[in-house]
């Protein structure tokens, strides 16, 4: 199973009362990047119109699973970090 297929998302941002929401990205727009450099995390990015989502993939060998919002990096660019065993190289392999 490839990492992009594993993380099937349609990202939405909304207000707590549900009155305001909009799409941040769709599965069809998913782009995988291994990123180069020591300490760099691989990422999957998604887009919808002018909006973009970047999900940093943090390997967890302890079984910890967490999805953390890191905020708006620049206007219309939202960052998240997913910590999961499936973010490890071959972490969900059979």
Looking at the structure, what is the overall shape?
A: globular
What percentage of residues falls in helices of 4 or more residues? under 10%
In the CATH hierarchy, what is the superfamily? Mannose-6-phosphate receptor binding domain
SSE arrangement, N to C: HEEEEEEE
- Number of β-strand runs: 7
Report what the structure shows:
It is a single chain. The protein is mainly β and 94 residues long. It has one domain (3-87): Cation-dependent Mannose-6-phosphate Receptor, Chain A (Distorted Sandwich), CATH 2.70.130. 4% of the residues lie in helices and 47% in strands. The protein contains 1 helix and 7 strands. The strands form 2 sheets. It has a 5-stranded mixed beta sheet with strand order 3-4-5-7-6, with no helix packed on it. Strand 6 and strand 7 (77-84) form a beta hairpin.
Brief account:
The protein is built from 1 helix and 7 strands.
Keywords:
disordered N terminus; Cation-dependent Mannose-6-phosphate Receptor, Chain A; mainly beta; 47% strand; 94 residues
Write the layout of secondary structure elements.
Elements (H helix, E strand, L loop, with lengths): L2 H4 L4 E4 L6 E5 L5 E3 L9 E6 L2 E9 L6 E9 L2 E8 L10
Parallel strand pairs: 5-7
Antiparallel strand pairs: 1-2, 3-4, 4-5, 6-7
């Amino acid at each position: 199973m490839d990492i992009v297929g594993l993380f099937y998302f349609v990202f939405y941002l909304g207000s707590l009362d549900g009155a305001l929401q909009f799409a941040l990205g769709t599965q069809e727009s998913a782009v995988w990047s291994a990123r180069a450099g020591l300490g760099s995390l691989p990422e999957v990015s998604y887009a919808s119109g002018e909006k973009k989502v970047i999900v940093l993939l943090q390997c967890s060998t302890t079984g910890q699973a967490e999805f953390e919002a890191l905020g708006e990096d620049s206007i219309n660019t939202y960052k998240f970090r997913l910590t999961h065993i499936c973010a490890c190289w071959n972490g969900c392999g059979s």
